[in-house]
Amino acid sequence: IVLDEGTIPTSPGRLHVHCTAKGLSPAGAVPAFDGDRIVLQQVRFGMAPYCAALLARVEATVDDDDEKNRLCRPLPFPDRADDWLRMMLGSMGTDYRILQVPELAAWADGCRLNVSAGLAEMGDDPVVQRALLRYATHASAAVENLGRLLDDV
After folding, report:
1. What is the pLDDT of residues 72-86, one digit of tens each?
2. Are 3 and 20 within 8 A, CB to CB?
3. Handedness of CA 59, 62, 68, 74 (dihedral sign)
4. pLDDT given at position 97
5. Are 62 and 128 in contact (CB under 8 A)?
6. Distance separating alpha carbons of residues 130 and 125, to the nearest angstrom
7. Considering only CA atoms, which of 108, 2, 126 is closest in space to residue 57?
8. Residue 132 · residue 139 · CB < 8 Å
9. How many C-beta atoms surround the C-beta of residue 45 within 10 A?
10. What is d(CA 65, CA 127) in angstroms, rounded to the nearest whole number?
11. CA distance 151 to 113
12. Which residue intervals of 8-125 are DSSP H helices?
């Protein structure tokens, strides 16, 4: 392998993957649920396994495609710095909508793929209590700020 500042020995039987290349293109958002078709995609920032599990759970428990798509709005992969704002706003929206459906909220809290699962079980921990209070206190303002920042882009 020839690099700018040297070489690395290799052999014809080895596979090398260029990890700095774009692996995911910023495709346009399409509904996840369309009749008998499910488009696996990101509906929460940075957690593909959880997104796939969430889409499967929604498919299994919600009958109406419009409601499924309302709950699980697609988040195109970021391509520019300001896409992070959209991703955060979209992820917060997904979390909020899922928490409004008791069965999905209970499932999400028990799903080991969800990074925020199990918080209810740790509700007695003062550190967790302070973190949850801080989040609850500032989440609405964060959503407003993200919207304002996106308006400026």
Report:
1. 999 877 778 888 898
2. no
3. negative
4. 97
5. no
6. 9
7. 108
8. no
9. 18
10. 40
11. 33
12. 48-61, 65-71, 83-99, 102-110
**Residue 27 to residues 33, 42, 52, 77, 111, Cα–Cα distance (Å):** 16, 11, 17, 7, 28
**DSSP element (H, E) containing 3:** strand 2-3
Q: How far apart are CA 25 and CA 131, in angstroms?
A: 35
Q: Which amino acid is at 134?
A: R
Sign for the pseudo-dihedral over CA of 28, 31, 34, 39? positive
Structure tokens at 55: 């889409």
Query: Nearest-5° angle of CA 84, CA 23, CA 15?
Result: 145
- Is residue 99 within 8 Å of 105, Cβ to Cβ? yes
Token pair for 26: 């910023």
- The percentage of residues in the chain with a pLDDT greater than 70, rounded to a whole number, is 93
Q: Give the integer Cα–Cα distance in Å for 87 and 26.
A: 12
Provide the 3-class DSSP secondary structure of residue 44: coil
Mean pLDDT of 87-109: 94
